[in-house]
Amino acid sequence: AAAVSMLALASLEAKQPAEAIKQVKRFRDRYAKTATAAALRDIEAIQAEALLETDKPAAAARLLSQLLNQHRDWSRREEAWLLLARAQRAAGEMQAASKAVNQCLREFPEGPQADLAWYRLGQLEQQQQNNSAAIAAFAASLKAKPDGSLAAWSLLAIGWCHEAEGDLPAAEQAWSNLIARLPESTAAASAVLARGDARQRLGDHAGGLTDAELVLKPGSPIAARLDAAARGEARLLQGLCLLGLERYAEAATSLRALLSDSPDLPAADQVLFQLGIAESLGGELAAAGKTFKRLVEKFPRSPFVADAWLQLGEADFAVEDWHAAAAAYRQAIA
User: Fold this and answer.
1) Residue 32: which residues within 8 A CB-CB, separation 6 or more?
2) Other C-beta atoms within 10 Å of 316: how many?
3) Are the C-beta atoms of residues 118 and 141 closer than 8 Å to each other?
4) Are 59 and 91 in contact (CB under 8 A)?
C-alpha cells in the first residue's frame, strides 16, 4: 500500500497526473478496506491535486472541501486550503476561492505559506477588479516575506493595480521600487517596460525612452529575460517617446523597423498610424500619405482609421485638392 501511494505521489511530482490517478485507483481497489484513515486521506489528497492538473478543478475542489471538513488536525491544512482556492479559481468560483484563502489566513496567519496565501488573495481581488483590496493583499504578501520568491511579483502586481485604477504615478513608483530592490528578477524586467509606458503616458518621454532602450539593448540582462512580444512593445514605446521628443526621423526609423521585424504585430494599426504622424511631422509628406493609405486599406475596422482619413484629408486640403480632401473627410466621419 505504501509503495502504491508513493508511486502515485512520484507520478504527480513528475508531472504525470494521469498516471497518478491510475495509481490512486489501484490503491483504492486493493487497499481501501485495510488502509489507515491517514493513508486514505493522503491518497485522496494526491487524487485531488491530480484532478486539478488534469483540468477537472470542480471535482478537485469537492474532494478538497471534504478532506478539510473531515480532518481538522491535518498537518497539511494550510497547503490544502491554498490548493482548494486554486481549484475553485480554475473552476470560476472566485468568491469561494477568496473565502478559502481567507480561512487559510485565519487558521495560519503566520504560517510558512502566508506570503503565498496573501498573494493568491491579491490575484483573486485583482481578477475581480477590486484593485484597492488587491493592493493591500499584495502588500501583505510582501510584508510576510520581504525577500521571498513572491516579493518581486507582488511589487509588479501592485503597479498593475495602480495602473488599472488610473494612478500612473503610484504605478510608476511601485515599478521603480521593484527595479531598485530586486533588479535581477524576471519581474523587474517586466517592470522596466511597464514603467516606461507609464512615463510616456505621463509625458516623461525621456524617461520612457530610457526604459525602452534598456529593454532593446542587445545582450542586456533585461532583454534576455523578456520575450519577442515584449521587445516589440519596447520598440513601439521607443517610437512613441521619440515622437514625443520631436525626434521625428528617429521615431519613423524605429517604427519602420518594428513593422519590418514584426509584420503580424497585434498593434500594427497603431504602429502605422504613429509612423504616419512621425513622417508627416518630419516633413516626409508623400511617405506619410502612403502610410495612412496602407493603414485604412489593411485595417478598415481599426480605431485609428478615422484619424488616418482625417490626416489624408488635411494633406489633400493643404495642396488644394478639394475633391480628394472632401472624399477623405467623408470617410473620416463615416
Assistant:
1) 40
2) 19
3) yes
4) no
Angle formed at CA 314 by CA 311 and CA 318, multiple of 5 degrees: 145
* pLDDT tens per residue, range 112-138: 999 999 999 999 999 999 999 999 999
pTM: 0.87
pLDDT (tens digit, 9 = 90+) per residue, 13-70?
999 999 999 999 999 999 999 999 999 999 999 999 999 999 999 999 999 999 999 9
User: Measured between alpha carbons, how far is 305 from 296 in angstroms, rounded to an integer?
Assistant: 5
Whole-number Å distance between alpha carbons of 295 and 276: 9
